[in-house]
User: Which sequence fits this backbone?
């Protein structure tokens, strides 16, 4: 992945890419994480998050999402109206642009597309998890075969699968092993890219095939 500094996007507001991925981990960017971008309702919700790191990253992610969408929509960040589908996925009323976000404890990833469905997932490798039992519960037979051939690809497989469900808007269903993400991708004409993020997290982005390059930016 070629991570361009976000200032490049800020410099060319009139020419925003059709598919955009933004990674953030440094909270030192003045302005972009401003609470002024959030609504009173969001500030109240974030206030109730007990874990300080989680609260910080969720707020940063939402503020950055609003700022990025404001560049596309030319609407001030707190005045952008979000709706939430029955499974909890936020979306825009206008329907012209789709977006999705994912966070770890220290970083976040935001995807925006002018071409419909988009889903993103980012995971920090955790050496203490029991990948084998998670795999048995969550992966389809075909995904399981891939995992057994390359156990080190667990996070790649998992982020691909979660990003697929997030693009479809359902989130992870009750019986994830009954669904194969490659079949879902084909059925819905979706494309999946899996990559390593700057802080060694694994991430996947799922969106409609466009033929245009996905631009990736980093907030530093
Ligand atoms: C929603 C879900 C995908 C989140 O996964 P996670 O690994 O905990 O979190 P991530 O950091 O990857 O993603 C969180 C973001 O996904 C988005 N999201 C929430 N529900 C979503 C859905 N159904 N589809 C796509 N994106 C969703 C939100 O923007 C959320 O960020 P926010 O809480 O800061 O607004 C997962 O919890 C899930 O699938 N749950 C089951 C679906 C469900 O029943 N949700 C209950 C809401 S009614």
Assistant:
């Amino acid at each position: 992945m070629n991570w361009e500094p976000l200032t490049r996007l800020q410099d060319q507001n009139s020419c925003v890419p059709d598919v955009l991925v933004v990674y953030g981990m440094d909270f030192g960017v003045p302005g972009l994480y401003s609470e002024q971008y959030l609504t009173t309702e969001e500030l109240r919700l974030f206030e109730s998050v007990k874990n300080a790191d989680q609260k910080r990253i969720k707020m940063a992610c939402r503020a950055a999402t609003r700022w990025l969408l404001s560049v596309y929509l030319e609407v001030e960040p707190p005045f952008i109206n979000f709706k939430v589908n029955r499974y909890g996925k936020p979306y825009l009323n206008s329907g012209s642009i789709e977006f999705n976000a994912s966070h770890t404890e220290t970083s976040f990833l935001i995807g925006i597309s002018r071409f419909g469905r988009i889903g993103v997932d980012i995971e920090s490798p955790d050496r203490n998890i029991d990948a084998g039992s998670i795999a048995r519960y969550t992966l389809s037979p075909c995904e399981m075969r891939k995992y057994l051939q390359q156990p080190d690809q667990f996070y790649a497989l998992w982020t691909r699968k979660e990003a697929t469900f997030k693009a479809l808007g359902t989130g992870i269903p009750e019986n994830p092993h009954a669904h194969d993400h490659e079949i879902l991708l084909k059925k819905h004409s979706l494309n999946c890219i899996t990559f390593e993020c700057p802080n060694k997290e694994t991430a996947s982005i799922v969106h409609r095939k466009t033929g245009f390059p996905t631009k990736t930016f980093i907030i530093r």
